[in-house]
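Appendix B. One record, verbatim.
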Amino acid sequence: MGERHLRYCIPLRSILAILYFKLTLCADNKVVFCTGGSGDICSAQVKALVHLGANACIIGRNAEKAARVGKEIEKARHGARVLAIGDIDVRKEEKVKDAVEQCVRELGGIDFVM
């Protein structure tokens, strides 16, 4: 009947600035644990979180690729800590458990899992 639709014109820059600020608060000094972190999509997501203040642990099947991608991600922010663990098959529970324990030991915990 008498429904009113209100439209607000908020500049896109303002929306992005607010989102960036909120994500920075969420990621600052947190630890991201990412399986498949040396792949294209996951590494881009991890790199964004590292840029916003997080540290990260990426795991993958190929140790050389994980190390290379880990070094690239680390460049996203001065002082970032990125632990790259290779030779991990996520279908083998013991391998994943060992990687989690190493991440917690070296980075102090895990706040996000991808």
